[in-house]
Amino acid sequence: MLVATGLAGVILLFLIGRRFRKRKKWNSAEEGISPRSVRIKKRLEETNPADELPPLPVEQVRQQVVLFNRHLPQKLKRRETESFREWFARIGFQPSPELQQLYETVRYDPNRSSEMTKTVLTDIEQDFSAYLGQLK
């Protein structure tokens, strides 16, 4: 009985000592940390949505596709698992044959040169702009 009481006392002292050490470490660490709500506000202020966007591709056709995607509402944006054709079919956009051929050439066969005239690029921009105009 005496041994059991002594053992219980030692365990109790051990637990109390351990609790005080944790509390002391937590309090000293807390001095350098601002409250959670302030930390969240700072983090939100520091992140700029424009900073989170990945850089544009080098190829002009792909740049136009990326910019088009950025201007779409969230539910129409391209999903990671979608191909070019699947995405356009889902949102109801009918790309011109020139756009399809140029995009697929540049995207999937970078070694093959694709000649693109300024008028073709302008036509692609106008197609994207017309589609975006329909959404508004």
Written overview of the protein:
The chain is mostly helical. The protein is 70% helix and 0% strand. It is built from 7 helices and no strands. Helix 4 runs parallel beside helix 7. The protein is rod-shaped. It starts with a helix and ends with a helix. The mean pLDDT is 78.
Task: Give me the secondary-structure topology.
Layout: H1 2-31, H2 36-46, H3 49-52, H4 60-71, H5 84-91, H6 97-108, H7 118-135
Helix pairs in contact: 4-7
Could you list some keywords that capture this structure?
0% strand, mainly alpha, rod-shaped, 136 residues
Give a short summary of the structure.
The protein has 136 residues and is mainly α. The protein is built from seven helices and no strands. The mean pLDDT is 78.
Number of helices: 7
Distance between the termini: 83 Å
Shape: rod-shaped
Mean pLDDT: 78
Radius of gyration: 30 Å
In this structure, how is the largest beta sheet organized? Answer: none
Number of strands: 0
Percent of residues in beta strands? under 5%
